Amino acid sequence: MHIASLSPELFFSRDGTRVTCRPMKGTAPRGRWLAEDMRIAEFLRSSEKERAENLMIVDLVRNDLGRVAETGTVEVPELFSVERYQTLWQMTSTVTADIGDAPTWKLLDALFPCGSVTGAPKIRAMEIIRELEQGPRGVYCGALGRIGPGRQAVFSVPIRTLTLDPGSGEATYHVGSGVTWDAVANGEYQECSLKIRVLTVSPKKFSLLETMRWNGRYFPFLAMHLRRLRASAAYFGFPEVEENLLCQRLEKALEGHQPAKVRLVYTPEGTVSWEVQEWVPWPSRVMLALAKDPVEESEDRYLFHKTTCRDTYRKALEHIPEGTHDAVLWNSQGHITETTRANLAVRFGTRWYTPPVEDGLLPGIMRERLLTYGFLHERSIMVEELYRADELMVFNSVRGCGRAVMLECSGESCCPPRAV
Known about the structure:
By secondary structure, this protein is α+β, with helices and mostly antiparallel strands. The protein has 3 domains: about 1-200, Anthranilate synthase (4-Layer Sandwich), CATH 3.60.120; about 210-280, 2-Layer Sandwich (D-amino Acid Aminotransferase, Chain A, domain 1), CATH 3.30.470; about 285-415, D-amino Acid Aminotransferase, subunit A, domain 2 (D-amino Acid Aminotransferase, Chain A, domain 2, Alpha-Beta Barrel), CATH 3.20.10. It contains 10 helices and 22 strands. It has helices at about 35-45, 50-65, 105-110, 120-130, 185-195, 195-200, 220-235, 245-255, 310-320, 365-370; strands spanning about 1-5, 10-15, 20, 25-30, 75-85, 90-100, 145-150, 150-155, 160-165, 170-175, 210-215, 260-265, 270-280, 285-290, 325-330, 335-340, 345-350, 350-355, 375-380, 390-395, 400-410, 415. The strands form 4 sheets. Strands 14, 15, 16, 17, 18, 19, 20, 21 and 22 form a 9-stranded mixed beta sheet that branches. Helix 9 (about 310-320) links the parallel strand 14 (about 285-290) and strand 15 (about 325-330). The termini are far apart.
């Protein structure tokens, strides 16, 4: 049997006489951009339900540790910490104790199985598990680790763990959730679906981008570009952006250069490079066509960040008619989001509207400025409203604002633009 484990949960570690346990109880999905991500983390941290479940397991681990710990040494130095992983947030707490000269096997006997995967009271919960579950769990939710010389040991709770039978080629991956009195079946199912995303969502190798305009003397919105870059770097776990140094390097490199478009690339290792390109203004009328397929605004977090993951935008451009400048993206709810190169606004009467970030779009720099000064108002915009709007506008920080026209579309065919 082969075992592949990416468990984030520490069962226990031992360093001499000191033992540390970090039970994990409490789960929430990642947000799609930094502000949403932080709101979800704070919601998890302050959730009475999640805190109550976590505290119940902390008390169970404290009691188990107390069976081998020296009197008065069991402590809880961290309670309700929230940890970030690729697809989810997890709540953990830390319990420590001094066990003196007690052998590690005795510690393992006192703690096993971990209370976070049994529930409380432990013995009765295990009896219920045995009655309800259809077969043994195998290594899942057991213990996986090593014992070394000098009273050293470290074990994980093997969640997020795949087992492979080399004979049959069959792989097994377990997921579960802790069911309490106030649990809701659909909520527990959604939690299990979230935990299995580590198998269904492939990690991508990518870099962050910022595309800026150099006007011949300075970058007009450099601080805003770097703020957005910093937010995306924090969200994806890239190294912190050294803004002052980067500003100096960019301005020195472009000093004396004619107006240009600058494409900056920031890698996961924290290295920076840039490419200087010709600046091209908008055409007098930007011809737009509707993208063939919707974007998955609830699943694709790369929609909310400027990155080298450009497949969504490339595919949208593949299906627009010849002579069209750009494609209008739309989401699973039938709301427009943006174009592949710019944000988008529609005018009804005297008011201009642009879609909210939640609909699945990049929060553009020019968009932020227009919203700040009250020129734009946020609201969801249905696809059919594009064809009823009094006026359309595309805009980004490199080209500014441009007048746009939608091609009339019916099924697979697009008609000439309507007069506006």
